[in-house]
Structure formats: structure tokens, C-alpha cells
Design brief:
alpha+beta, 3 domains, 7 helices
């Protein structure tokens, strides 16, 4: 410790500051290169068979469901029909056309998925469930969801589902616009109650 203290006294604080900044820049460059190499490396395309696990809670929409599948090679966003339903943690095997996300004129869907390390998409593949997740916690959450949507009418059910369970995609677009105009759209963002529910279910 005495030697380090003497060394600190000899080295100017400004020099230490520049050294730390230089190290931080090197770390940022290194992490960027790793991320860029992962993004630019060749991806499998065409008809494939993949096996993996659903690593996020299914994103239920009006007409379909979005599943995030993690394989031993990459993450894939899968669009499937509303039924049958799949759960977080299910291990599945899929076969279908693996595609690159589309870049629209007014929206870069590819970059949007990139933030979640998703570089490929597949629409309505053939699915085989290899191992079903029988977590009672997620079953309990589904029961809460059923109670809300069966016993409450819209828009109350949509707002409560978004606040409590994070079901923002179940909200009709006209309701979202009304909330935006009223300046209360933030009530459907991640609330303390929703965060608590998510922590309980994922731990």
C-alpha cells in the first residue's frame, strides 16, 4: 500500500484521468467490434429446422403471437397463430423460411429488432413442442389475464391488462390515440405493480 501511495503522489491526477479515459475508450471500441461482428456475420437463410427455447413471455396480438426463440446460433422472432398457445420457457423445434427483417420506407424494423439481438424472423412455421414449461406462476398470470378480459369490458380491460400485466399490444390503436391526446399514455408504461409481477414470475 505504501508503494502505491508513493506512486500516486508522483503521478499527476490529470495523467491518471487520461489513462482511465483511454482504457474506457478501448473497452467501448472492443465491445462495439464484438457487437458489429455478431451483426455482420453471415446468417442462415431459407428453409431451416431450428431448436431452442422461448426466452421471453409471448407477445400476444389481436391476430397472432410473437415468440422470441433463442437457439444455439442466434435469436429468432417467430410469428405464430393465436392458437395453440406457447409459454415462456417452452423448448420447441421449428421448421420454415428464415428471413431477414424487412426495412420499411418509414421504419427500420431490422434496427428495431437489433437492439434485442434479433437478426432473423420466421412467419408461421411448423412447430413441435419438445419440452413444455409447467410453471404454475405463469399459469397463475394467465388466469389473472382471463379474469380481466372475461369479466371486464373494453377499454377498462385493456387499460388494466396493460398496467398490471404489460399487455400494451392488446390495446386498440384508437384507445392508444385517446390516451396520447389526454396525456395519460404513461399509465400503461412499466408501473411498480407490473414490475413486481414480472419479478415474481421470472424469479
Amino acid at each position: 500500500m505504501f508503494i502505491l501511495y508513493q506512486l500516486y503522489r508522483k503521478v499527476r491526477p490529470r495523467t491518471i484521468y487520461f489513462v482511465l479515459c483511454f482504457i474506457l475508450i478501448l473497452i467501448i471500441i472492443y465491445r462495439y467490434q464484438i457487437f458489429n461482428n455478431e451483426f455482420n456475420k453471415p446468417k442462415i437463410r431459407g428453409n431451416v429446422v431450428l431448436q431452442g427455447k422461448i426466452i421471453k413471455e409471448p407477445d400476444v396480438r389481436d391476430n397472432n403471437i410473437k415468440l422470441t426463440l433463442e437457439t444455439d446460433k442466434e435469436r429468432v422472432l417467430i410469428t405464430v397463430a393465436r392458437y395453440p398457445e406457447y409459454d415462456y420457457g417452452d423448448e420447441i423445434k421449428i421448421s420454415g423460411e428464415l428471413e431477414e427483417p424487412v426495412v420499411f420506407e418509414d421504419f427500420n424494423y431490422k434496427n428495431y429488432l437489433r437492439k434485442d439481438r434479433i437478426y432473423s424472423v420466421m412467419y408461421y412455421p411448423k412447430i413441435e413442442v419438445l419440452n413444455k414449461n409447467h410453471s404454475y406462476l405463469f399459469s397463475f398470470k394467465d388466469k389473472i389475464r382471463q379474469v380481466i378480459y372475461k369479466n371486464m369490458s373494453s377499454p377498462q380491460s385493456s387499460i388494466l391488462g396493460a398496467m398490471l400485466l404489460g399487455d400494451k399490444n392488446r390495446m386498440p390503436n384508437d384507445l392508444k390515440e385517446k390516451l396520447n391526446k389526454a396525456g395519460v399514455r404513461h399509465i400503461t408504461a412499466v408501473s411498480g405493480m407490473q414490475t413486481l409481477v414480472q419479478q415474481i414470475l421470472t424469479n
